[in-house]
Amino acid sequence: MIQQQGIERINVGVFAHVDAGKTTTTEHMLYESGRIKAVGSVDSGTAVTDSMEVERQRGISVRAALASFEWRGVQVNLVDTPGHVDFLSEVERSLRVMDCAVLILSAVEGVQAQSEMIWNALRKLGIPTLIFMNKMDRVGADPEAVLAQARTYLSGDILPVQQALGQEQDYAGAVDLWADGADPAARTELLEAMAERDEALLEVYMSGAPLAVADWKKQLIAKTASGTMFPLVYGVAAKGLGITQLLDAMTDYFPRTGGNPELPVSGIVYNIQRDKSMGRMAFVRLYQGTIRNRDTVMNYSQELQGKVTQIRKVEGGRTEDVGTLEAGDIAVVYGLTGVRIGDVLGLPDAIPQEAKLAVPLLTVRVHWEADIDEHQVIGAFQELADEDPLLDTQWLQDERELHIKVMGPIQLEILDSVLESRYGLKVTFGQPSVIYKETPSQAGEGYVAYLMPKPCWAILRFKIEPGLPGSGLQYESLVRSSDLLPQYQNETARRVPEALMQGLCGWEVTDLKVTLTEGQHHVWHTHPLDFAVATPMAIMDGLNRTGTRLLEPVLQVRIVVPEENGGRVMNDLVQMRGTFEPPVLQGERMIIEGRLPLATSLEYPVSLSSYTKGRSTFTSFFAGYEECPPDVRAERTRRGVNPLDQARYILSVRKALEG
After folding, report:
1. To 5 degrees, how large is the angle CA 315–CA 318–CA 321?
2. What is the mean pLDDT of each run of 10 residues along the chain (659 residues)?
3. Measuring CA to CA, which residue among 138, 182, 116 is closest to residue 21?
4. Which of 2, 70, 416, 450 is most solvent-facing, going by the fewest CB within 10 Å?
């Protein structure tokens, strides 16, 4: 499928909670469009978008996969994203480059924790979204209950644009409510729902004027594009039912990509993978301009230039050389040495904001046998961290230890498999430990006068104040440039986040405001790096005065259990320091929603499944950091010399410390 100038195009992300049928839906879209000749299967490991060996073995998507096809004259770039919460970073990166989204809900399980989290991110970014209610033929399918749930948890503006014909084993497809011959009562219900949600449409509806169906559909198309209404369609992806109607709905309701191919280049690298023969593959979404083979492209983020060797469309294991990437399109660019995820190519002007979803909550030490070369292991993890920066690989030189950050246990299993299959390395992982954070207990000041041993001169005074939960670090300088030169102020500002990476208990310090209130340099004695040395000493002096409170990660959980197990679950939640809403009965099942500290609930999903004999579901997502009770203690061994021990710290940074 060679790219054509001026073609209509949509970039669509497919999102869902795990097991809602996302990859199966994607596979059938590729088949119906003629892009593949046979439908692959997740269970048999033949799905096109599950190209990694581990994906085929496990039957889950680990990476976001790109596929392209044409439908009714429109080029569709489709990104199938992982559904498991451990791979949320892939979802986060895909969200940033999508113009439209299909959210898949199961007609049996309904709205689950990850569906809700993705929905909130889609709304934050204003991405037009279509709902596909899958598994309509399954026992227990209840489309009306799921629609009510979706309107409660997601949006009251979700509108079915089809009438489902039957459900469970009697499901026989769905009829488009705009089509000739559609049930008049069902169509009237749709028009009334639209009118209830828009005053101008209500006026037209109440006027009694003849209602042109095509005009009402145009109104819904406009409302969908503006992100104020959300069409819903039905289907059974595993049987291919409703797939062509879903494709029609995508091309009907989704806006086409914008972007001017004549303007200067503006694009973003949203994914990095490796090709055995071609090297680093940079997945690029281009917003403006055009990139061609052999072009030299500026990497704005790293202030480097790179030469493009090839531009390809990639689907599963197949690649196709297209030679050109123009505004609005997505492709893989080869030849950009050292390129990283998140790098901006060309100018940053046209790049949209991102939604932060993924927060690694666990840290793990990596172990290997003595006969394995440690450099090989470190190199492999650094490559994997290029593909997923949230791994945050840290090699502690003095302790000879390698640590990584992960989202959960499934991610560790996948890493283990990838290391063995790709690098031939066998490693083991230590017990995951929770990543805590710290925040100042009260307001206070930190001060340092770094005047010895000469030559050096740096005086700093910071005001440190607690911030609102989730506010991160706010930094400000009140010092005049006549007292402290801009170059020294810039160096100080750059070093403050680094200085806060290890607080009094060894954890990152967050949710605070740091204000530089005094700063002095010396016209002869100040060395350019003096403020790099002084900043951590002043910050730690301030934290020592304010003290810090420990923060722990908290999960929002939804637990569904047989009614007879509800009492035990609520008791468990209390024992784990959890809080919960009054439970809701749904048939013979009880739904309990609440918040749980991660530290107390790491093993709980396994024990819950055990005592309910597998008849329970436990879904969770990260809800934020909250203050620990006073009796909770968690300290992490500090890396390097503590800046509170100023004499020893100065010697260490000046490479004068023995042993």
Report:
1. 95
2. 62 86 89 82 50 47 73 89 64 81 92 81 89 94 93 93 91 92 90 90 81 88 94 95 95 92 92 78 92 92 90 75 90 88 88 74 88 89 83 80 82 85 89 93 96 88 95 95 92 95 95 96 86 96 97 91 93 95 88 92 87 83 90 88 92 67
3. 138
4. 2
3-state secondary structure of 302: coil
| Separation between Cα atoms, residue 56 and residue 47, nearest integer Å | 8
Find where tokens 């992806």 sit. 237
Residue 526 tokens, joined: 């100040």
- List phi, psi (to 5°) of 655: 55, 35
- CA atoms of 146 and 161, how far apart (whole Å): 15
Query: Parallel, antiparallel, or unpaired: how do β-strands 74-80 and 8-16 relate?
Result: parallel
**Both tokens assigned to 132:** 């596909």
Strand duo 401-406 + 394-396: pairing:
antiparallel
Task: Please give the distance of CA 415 from its chain centroid, rounded to a whole number.
Answer: 18
Token couple for 57: 């073995």
> What residue ranges in 171-289 does DSSP mark as E strands?
174-176, 230-234, 266-275, 279-288
Phi-psi region of 270 (alpha: psi -120 to 50; beta: other; left: phi over 0): alpha
Q: How many CB atoms lie within 10 A of CB 605?
A: 17
Please name the residue ranges forming H helices in 547-645.
566-575, 598-601, 604-611
**In whole angstroms, what is the distance from residue 518 CA to residue 504 CA?**
23
